[in-house]
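For the sake of clarity, the format in which proteins appear in this thesis is described at this point. The fold follows as a row of integers, each naming the local backbone shape at the matching residue. One such record is shown here in full, so that the layout can be seen directly:
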Amino acid sequence: MQRAPHHRSRSRRGMAAALVAGTMAASLLGGTAATARPYPEAPSTTLSLPSPPGGKNVKVLVFHASATEESPAVDAGIEAIEAIGLSGTAAQRFKTEATDDGSVFTKAKKLGTYNAVVFLTGGGDVLDPEQEAGLEAYVEAGGGFLGIHDAARTEPYSDWFTGLIGARPAATSPTNVQRATVEVGDRVNPATKDLPLEWKRPDKWINWASNPTGKVHTVARVRESTYQPGAGANGSDHPVSWCRDYDGGRSFYTGMGGTAESFAETDFRDHLRGALLWTTRLSRADCKATIDANYTAERVTQPNQPGQQDQIGEPHGMVVAPDGRVLYIGRGGGTGSDPVVTDWNNPDVGKGKGDIHVYDPVTKKVTLAGSLTVFGNKGGGDELQKVEEGLLGIVLDPDFETNGWVYLHYSPHSEINRDTQMGKRRVARFTLDLTTNKLDLASEKVLLQWPVQIHSCCHAGGGMAFDSKGNLYIAVGDNNSSGFSDGYSGNNPQPNYKGVSFADARRTAGNTNNLNGKILRIHPEDNGTYTLPEGNLFTGKETAEGGGKTRGEIYVMGVRNPARISIDTKTDVLYAGWVGPDANAPSTTWGPAKYDTFSVITHASNRGWPYCMGNKQPYRDRNLPDPSKPLGWYDCDNLKNESPNNDGLVNIPPAESNTIWYSPQGGAPDYPRDANGVPSYKASEAKFLLPWLKGGGQATMDGPVYRYDATTDSAVKWPEYWDGKWFVGDFYDADNPRHAVLTDPKTAGQGGLPVSAESLKKIIPVGEGGIRNLMDWKFAPDGSLYVLDYGRGFFTSDAQSALWRVTYKGGAPTPAADDLARKAAQ
């Protein structure tokens, strides 16, 4: 007979449970609980769990009551859990008992013999108040809980049970069995570490009334694009399995297991096995790593004093030293009161000050290490009245702790030609006094220098990184105007100043004989010179008819404006991001909209610009005599640089697909293609392959791949969960990415899409009072994350320009090592 639903009195039930749990805790500690009159709802016998519970006799209770029709999956579930308990290593085995009698939760002595309770329940109200108080006391005493599928529909009137489960089903969820892809994002949790990255399986998929992300630790998500989620869809972030430490105990929930067939799957049994290992205290797991409240974001620099840049210049890059000091640079824009000279007849035109500051986390003090006189203090006005040159990048020598060498990527004001409006960019080495934090400007050794046009904005790039072999990677923008091509391919050959084109990226990014629009790779030598490592895109010795040549420093060509790059310290793989053009929508005449791009780069290659973008989506040629009229589509696999401004090879390497691209319409737009492989570019036919991100105002800021260091004794380091995840972000905080991305190493280097991504916008806060304009981010040796906020406006620093630090405070995995059941039994 079905029981009528009844509403709980949380205060009475909760007080009863607390009384019982308190008595149990006192018993464990060898003390005596305070005398108190029990409430009528309290269990009649004090609950007392062994500490640690179980010893060699680990037991799991499977509770399968239902106020509705019992699911046909119950028998299969019980059988599977019994089999799991009897299999595996001796240290993983447990005994299983099953019941649908809720009175077990009022028998405290018996309940205390179970290491974990599994709810294989159906929907509805299956526990009376006294029974629920017993369950609550069990969890408060340190018991483990595993909820499976319809357990989320159980006890619908209990706020405490809602917290135990983590989320409730939405009003509408699909009722049919559908095959879908599960994104297994947690690669260290025992419930998921051995599962496929992309786990394809059939089940009944529940939609959630309220998304639990950020309040629980999600270990897996279901990808809604692979099935029909219906009207209650959760979108790109649809958690399906999660866990957290709850009310003194441990709670794991999986929305899978809605069919009897699920329990026969080897992978699903492995999923349950891992969940049971943690809930029974047979193993430890971190179920706190993605809970927002476990992170603290703190601004560590103060605003500049009026009229000064004593704390921070116009933020443009940072690096963290092995001892934890943070060196960060200002591009060259002065304070709001500094004059900006834009008259080319004035010898001080564009003169700016590129500042290098040092933040010491021990003293919490900032030191101005030094300043370079740069070409870079222009701002505002039209295309010919702004510049992105200046002090652009910083990286430390691999032996910085002993030699103090700092490499700076900058545009020296002394090298500009006011007549031709040409300048030079250089990478130079300086020595920092490790005691005083002062840069010796006289110690400069210029490694590499090349010409850039400074008549028209933009795209300087700037990021630098070292790999483990001592090779230095240098990100260089295409030195090309954003105008004159309607916001599509920067391939207009006509505009020039005194013979130098400034609107044709084929002169730069597509040119094998030009260092702009590239990622360079060189090996610095101790004497201030450099050599070329093997494996770059060119040797520098290639020639062709007509005099076309190459530069041996080029590792990657075909990038537009790569402000940030990073090297994975474990794999030496290069990660990069670059800003796309300005068109807000795709064009059936000219090609893709603005695609900001992130790419995993495993080998020397051409990333496509200005011919192709994204997953090899071509632009239209607009060569002479009339660049306003289109010619043919570029062939991404057989590229030719036929620009009159090209002095490199005509036949250039084919374009390769990139990992992430996004537009104002959404993430990774793709279109049907014709027989020649040309996309339709019709907005109505667009398919968005990465629904978790969307552009608008866009400026990619590539971040690091986090590597967890178990040997570091740090209370603030980000957990192992984040190990191997790639941090991708955007300068703007709106809908743009600020995510940790998991890629498949088998496919990422060939343009394979990310497996999963999760937002960092509450951990690295956005909006007012947060980090609005993310300019750079790096992990420190202690595992904390530093983030550089550009501030508000452009070409200056303001009160919001700041260095931030994001630390973890969630503590170690649970249960504590001393509480592991098997360990205590040995």
